[in-house]
Every structure is written in structure tokens, then in C-alpha cells.
Hints:
The complex is a heterodimer. Chain A has helices at 3-20, 182-195, 230-234, 253-260; strands spanning 23-27, 34-40, 43-47, 57-60, 66-75, 80-85, 104-111, 115-127, 130-131, 137-138, 141-145, 156-158, 164-169, 177-181, 201-202, 205-212, 217-225, 241-245, 248-249, 268-275, 278-285, 287-288.
Amino acid sequence: MANELAALSNELAAAVEQAGRTVVAVHARPRFSSSGVFWRPGVIVTAEHTVRREEEITVTLPDGKNASATLAGSDAGTDLAVLRTDAAGAVNGRASRDPVAGNLALCIGRSEDSGVNATMGIVSAVSGAWRTWRGGRLDHYIRLDLTLYPGSSGGAVINTGGEIIGVATSALSRIAGVAIPAATIDRVVDEILQRGHVTRGYLGVGLQPVELVDRHKKALIVLSLEPEGPSAKAGVLIGDILVALGGKAVSDTEEVQLVMEGYAVGQQVEAEVLSGGAPRKIAIAVGERPRRD
Amino acid sequence: MRGFGEIAERLRRSTVQVFPEGRGRGGGSGVVWTGDGLIVTNAHVARSGAAEVELWDGRRFRAKVAARDPRRDLATLRIGATGLESATPGDSDSLRAGELVIAIGNPLGFAGALSTGVIHSIGKLPGMGTERWIRAAVQLAPGNSGGPLANAQGRVVGINTAIVNGLGVAVPGNAALDFLHRGARPSLGVVLRPVSQGLLLLEVEPNGAAAAASLKAGDVLLGSFDDLNDALDSGREVLRLQFVRDWPVNGRARVREVAVRLAAPAEAAA
């Protein structure tokens, strides 16, 4: 009778134990530590917003020992930071199937004082690619209906089989915890290990959507220009109206960012603008988005 | 899920409401430990010498506080009743993070309210000494204090005690068993708060060891919380403690010394 409940309880504890072998505590901010996950041998991912210093970072490994770690790089847009440590660490298997709304999910963290910790809830929503308010792109939006306590961010989000779905963060949504999907982490880790950071194409313009009276369509008016920025250098003027970028019509900033994802830093992108009502084509050399310190 | 209802109902019948005497403060919860009227609750729920206990079926009894261990926040109550449905203790040492747990209590006056969740972690709490605590991701509220935290089999593995950062904090069931077998450990009879200079006494219980040694609220004991705990557990009957009274804003603090005679351990309750 009650065996089903006890069996589920044991299964959950076993999943936590398995996933817990890959989860560390990350000491990179005052007071509360956060959590991190061994993503590759010697490579730990954690939530960028919990890394508040670049030096003297330590991690508490699953065996309880403390080890020093170095910051390989971070990407505020996806809220990911990558640490390197001498310990290889165990790496967990990825979930074989994408989560769907309603699946049970656990968030596994670690603290130095009390070891592995777990909270449980459900995946409350899954959708396609999603741009965070910090500007990064997640391959899926995975919203969690589980409580993230102080120190949970950076922990592993797993299914009941102990397979990893992603990494938990409380900083990407005001209303709920979000799992940064495994596919996004792979991409960001690759880029950070190669270059030390994630580069994003940058035009150096402030844009505001406006309606074009004569054509019943929207475009974007240039409200500000970064001095010496890519657009300013290419001859874009304040008051110009951007109607197309890279051959695609653009009517809001989301579309501009989507186009920019196809252009690496240094490439030329063609902008079609209305300058005082007259159409003009300008080639802009894509710059690199200045990174915050 | 079949069986869950029965587990919850059985646990509910072993959970009582505790209304402490005096002080117009809200009540807490308790666990029926033996059928002949031994009840386990938190020391902070059983603050005075007597209390009223209400069973799941609405019967009310006067209860005497049999033993208190304020340092572990545990107390036992005695009521004159027999044939009670007692809880089954589980082994809290074998608990693992992620296990399903059930909490029953009387949060905010709702009698017999149930919440479920999972074990979050087990271990020390920062700044709370060397004791182990269970942290559970369950929804608790004032009034849950002293009530049972049970595993998926309905066995009591903890006594719900506090809420820290939204997490339920429980005294491990095995610590409660230890308290029942060995009785309360010596205590100073104070409420204290760690401050940068030492331990600030916020309250001194009128009949406690500290009061008998003329310590007063506002005094600052020198040393750490862990040092004090070690001294209390050392088995010595008299502790020599250094403290500062009226800590001067400027200038040197005068360190005084006091000998505190600890009460002999209370009789074990069961």
C-alpha cells in the first residue's frame, strides 16, 4: 500500500545521490555560497550572478574537500560562468528526452556545512528559444515550479532518473526559477573555453520602433549613437530610420538581435535606412558588445 | 496515491496542539510519543512549567512539563491519558536528501494541517553550533513548532522547530530519542545572541543557572558559541565564565569572572 510512496521516496533520494556527485558548492560571493555542476572533467558551470569576485574562488567538492578554482570566463546574457579546477570531478548523463510541462524536477545544490541539498517541484512550462532580459539566448525556456533557496542557483536541475536537464538560476525570471538548458550550456562552455567570453555582435545604436506613415509598416528610428561605435563610424545619423538589416525587414529590437546572431564580430552587415526620407544603404562593420566589468 | 491518506491520518492522530500557560503567545504542536501520555515538543513551545494539550479528537488535558533541553529546543510533556495513538519513530541518521517528507502541525491555528516536501539537507547550520539539523523543503508556519516531520512510511524522523530562509528546520528524531533516554543537558538558562565581542545575553531565565550566578541581560560572555557548548557538555559542575558588563563605548572593557553552578541533569523522561 504505502510501498509505492516509499519506493518513490527512495528513487528520488537515489537520483539526488547520483546527481549530487557532480555538484559542488561555489564560494565566489560574500555570505551565501552558491552551487555549481561539473560539466566536463575539471570544468564547472555556475550561475554568473552568484560570481561576485574574479579571484580567490573556491569550491567544496562532493567529497567535502575544498579546492581552489579559476574563473575561465562568464556570460551575463545567459547567466553562466565557467570555472576550472584541478579536480576532475564526475560528470552526469544528460536527459535523453527534453522535459515537458508537468514532469517532476529536482534542483540539487551543495553547501559546505550540510553537504548536498535538494528541492523538488515540477517543470511548469517549456517553450522554444528564448531571449533573456540580460540579452542572451537560451535554446529553450524551461520554467520551474520549485523553490530556489539562497544557494540553489547554479545547482543541477535533474529529472527523477537523475539525468541532468540544466542548471538552475533565479536571476533570469522575476516570477519563477529557470533551468538554463544543457544545449545552451554546451554552446557557452565551448565559447568561453576558446575565447574566455561570449562575443555578441554590436551596432552601437539606440533604437525605438516607429510607424512609417506612408507604408503602413514599422521600422526603427535611431535615437542615440555610441560615440565612435560601429554605426557612428559607418555614417549612421541620429534620426535615421532603420528599415532593414542584412536584407531582412526589421520592425522591433528583437528582430534586430535575431539578425545580429548571424553576424560575427568584424563582419559587414548591410543596413537600409531612411535618411531624411531618402533611402540609403550603409555597410556597418559589426563591433563587439562592450562587456560590463 | 493509495496509502498516503492512511499514513497522513495516522500521523495526524499522533499530533497534538500545545497551548503554553501564561504569556499570551500562540500555541505550537507536539508528538504523542507513548500511549500513556508522553508528548514531545519544542522547548520554545513549552516555555512555562505547564501547558494545555488538545488531542486530534478534541479532548483537552492539562500537561506538566517533564523535562526541557533549551539548547536542543526539546521538551517533554506529561498528560493523564492512556490508550493514545502514539507515533512510530524512524531512524533520522539514515535520511537522505530528496526523500519525501510529511509535516503535520497547527500552523497559524489550523489544527492538523499537512504539508509535504522533500529533505533539503542534513548537517550543521551556520552559526548554530556543531549540532546536526534537518532542513526540509516543506511549507511551515508558526504553530508547526514541536510537530512531527515524518518520512514516506509515516515514521517520525524530526521535530519541526524553525523556519530559516523559508526552509523548515527540524531537530533530528534521533536527537529526540537521545534526549528522552538521557534527559536534558545542562544549560545556562539564557537567551543569547552572538555579537562581534562574544555572546550577548538577551534574556536570563529567573530560575536558571545564569540568574543564580548573578548574570544579567545585557552582559556579554567572552568566547564563541561553540566554546560555550563544549564547556556545557564537558561534565563539569561549575563553569568559570568571563564576561563584560556595561561594555564601554570608548576605553577598555573590564573583564569580570563568574562561577556558574550547573543544575544536575534532569531525570530522563522515558
